[in-house]
Amino acid sequence: MMCLQFWRAVPTERRLAWGPVLFLAGLLMVSMTGKSNAENLAPVKIVAFGTSLTARGGWQPRLQTRLAACLQRPVSVENVAKSGETSTWALTQLDRVIAEQPDIVLIELYANDATLHRFVSLAQSRKNMGVILDRLHQRLPRARIILMAMNPFSGLRGLIRPFVDSYISAHQAEAQKRGLEFVDYRPGWERLSSDELAAAIPDGAHPRPESASKVIVPELVGHIAGRDCKD
User: Fold this and answer.
1) In 64-77, which positions are buried (b, 16+ CB within 10 angstroms) versus exposed (e)?
2) What are 162-215's pLDDT values in tens digits?
3) Alpha helix (H) ranges present in 72-225?
4) Exposed site from 35, 64, 75, 221, fewest CB < 10 Å?
5) Record's CDD domains (predicted)?
6) What is the pTM of this model?
7) In this predicted structure, what is the pLDDT of residue 36?
8) CB-side exposure of 114: number of CA atoms within 13 Å?
9) What is the pLDDT of the chain when averaged over all its residues?
10) How far apart are CA 116 and CA 191, in angstroms?
11) Considering only CA atoms, which of 180, 189, 153, 150 is closest in space to residue 168?
């Protein structure tokens, strides 16, 4: 109880900075309980919770492989994701996420909220995200909860999401208010030329799996395990 009270008293920016260090320390403590072979350790369980950017993402196998190599222990990545769905749908899926008892939850739920035809207002999207984060944190108090900003949209897919950056910012604000983590992959995509970006995201919304893996996985592995561990 004293440790929990101390952690709650730590400023948000320090919690975010210490996240990877404490996560690795926890894994080390588990590994010192008598199991000397990494293959005998329980896997680090990750649930990727989101939309088609997760369901069709294709970056999960690469994340699983590279993070396992970095941590020197098994890693499993499961999806709770559905194309075309919103944060309103996500509220009905929390029991599925919790049932996995993950060590890490990766969340991206803004992309379809931001479409003009799905009628999820910015205020409602932010409220939904707050409820999602609170419930996950209450039911999975030891899990790392990481919100993500994914790839840019273009063409028609971009036109129907004129305020997508505002939705990302609203979700980020809800995470930061609770001392939770946020990873932004957009700078990685911005380093590509226009031709490279068009080839990587041909439909204007869904990156090719190999392209998504190249941009997302190094950033995410570094965030989870520390910057010394790169893809």
Assistant:
1) bebbbebbebbbbb
2) 999 999 999 999 999 999 999 999 999 999 999 999 999 999 999 999 999 999
3) 87-91, 94-99, 122-139, 155-159, 164-177, 186-190, 194-200, 209-225
4) 35
5) SGNH_hydrolase
6) 0.84
7) 47
8) 24
9) 89
10) 28
11) 150
Which residue, 101, 108, 107, 96, is CA-closest to 43?
101
How many CA atoms lie less than 13 Å away from 118 in the CB half-sphere? Answer: 20
Taking the mean position of all CA atoms in its chain, how far away is CA 31?
25
Residue 177 is encoded by which pair of tokens?
């208010």
- Residue that is written with structure tokens 């910057």 in the block: 227
Hey, what are 218's tokens? 């190094």
The neighbour count for residue 172, using CB atoms within 10 Å, is: 18
pLDDT number for residue 5: 45
**pLDDT for 6-44, tens place per residue?**
444 556 555 555 555 555 555 545 444 444 455 678 899
155: tokens are: 């063409």
Burial class (CB in 10 A: 0-12, 13-18, 19+), 8: exposed
Domains present along the chain, CATH in parentheses: 2-225 (3.40.50.1110)
Instruction: Let me know: does 224 contact 16? Beta carbons within 8 Å.
Output: no
Asked whether residue 222 carries a pLDDT value surpassing 90, the answer given is yes
Give bridge partners of residue 81 from the DSSP assignment.
50
